[in-house]
Specification:
Layout (H helix, E strand, L loop, with lengths): L15 H7 L3 H18 L5 H10 L5 H21 L3 H19 L1
Helix pairs in contact: 2-4, 3-4, 4-5
Length: 107
Amino acid sequence: MYDPRYEPKPILPFLQPLYETLVPLSWLIIRCSAGLILFVHGYAKIGHVDAVAASMAKNGISPSLLAAYLVTAVETVGALCIALGLFTRFFAAAAAIDLAVITFHVF
């Protein structure tokens, strides 16, 4: 389904060789950035799952301990898998659900 007629034209045409080199790396950069940013948030929860569960219970999420373990797993193991490119669709969907709950239920 790729049609080169619809490829965006570079603003600076003399940079075309650089664009051709960097375009294949773009998804790697996005995946690593998103995974590692999410990992930082999950890593902070590792030793404090009880505090995370208490915060979830205060916000009306139950069962809070199970949810705290799931969120911690998604934000650590899932984030590393996203950064490495392993099971990305599964963990990206899990992270999207996690972030949707944070966005629409907590705030």
